[in-house]
Amino acid sequence: QVQLVESGGGLVQAGGSLRLSCAASGRTFSSYAMAWFRQAPGKERLFVATISGSGGNTYYADSVKGRFTISRDNAKNTVYLQMNTLKPEDTAVYYCAAGTLAFTTTTKYNYWGQGTQVTVSS
Could you give the maximum distance between any two Cα atoms of the chain, in Å? Predict the structure, then answer.
């Protein structure tokens, strides 16, 4: 069982930056691929980024490529999402998720956090 707790969301102006964190419980954190998804009001939950258990492989949605960076610190059981050059369309609740492999679909992830709100004003 893995429990995930996100933090770091907030209100930021367009062009600004935020760093989200996701702290995981358990002693097998490095065995899980981790991902970030986001969900805007009234819309489906969409893939943002994923990272392999070792941290050696990452993959991004086209909409955030070059602006967002996913990373992890296995010693701290934490995954991060550095978000730069934020746009109003990045506004959403951001969720972290843990799964066996680094997929881009929600159904491949077994564990989810409660989400953290990110609001980007224009």
Answer: 42
